[in-house]
Amino acid sequence: MLPIERRQQILLWLEQEAYLRISEISKRLEVSEMTIYRDIKPLLDQQKVSKTSNGIRLVPRQQMLSTCCSYCHKVSHSRLSVQLIKSNQLVEQTCCAHCALLRYQDCREDVLQIICRDFLTDTTISAQIACFLLHTDINLHCCQPQALPFESVHQAQQFQKGFGGVIYDFEGAIVAIQTEMTGSACCHKET
Ligand SMILES: [Zn+2]
Ligand SMILES: [Zn+2]
Prior knowledge:
This protein is α+β, with helices and mostly antiparallel strands. The two termini are about 35 Å apart. About 40% of the residues lie in helices and about 20% in strands. A hairpin with a 3-residue loop joins β2 and β3 (about 55-60). It contains 7 helices and 10 strands. Strands 5-4-6-7 form a 4-stranded antiparallel β-sheet. One zinc ion binds near residues 95, 98 and 99. One zinc ion binds near residues 69, 72, 74, 94 and 143.
């Protein structure tokens, strides 16, 4: 068996068993523990697996994605960030509502829920029932056109009185952002 085949086999086992001792892997593959350590080095470097006291375990995929926007790949850790809960149990994070709406458009049928924060109250809300304020005078320096989520239309209207902008519902905001992005290079999406 080649090292690459052993690595594939180790990953397969880890997917089923979550955790493996080095001694156990060496016994199953009939190679020395030294060889196993050499085999798993690239997996550790790529953060696919992590070390435990005497073995290795699989790194959950959402842990690897959590710091970077799944749409534009910018680092995202601010309160603007949005989580997309997908049907395969994965959680994706985007840097802001703009990217969440566009990302949702790409993989609609796989998304169970979208969690964002109300721009005023900072409470967690479901994006599908939120409303979004576009084109306000306030610039948050994330992606353009920016979309600010609000739980209540009433509060969005009050905010609108001060900062301007246009209020959309969830589906309306997707269409509005897409329309505006056509032919422009204002998004950071890497192709
Ligand atoms: Zn983004
Ligand atoms: Zn953004």
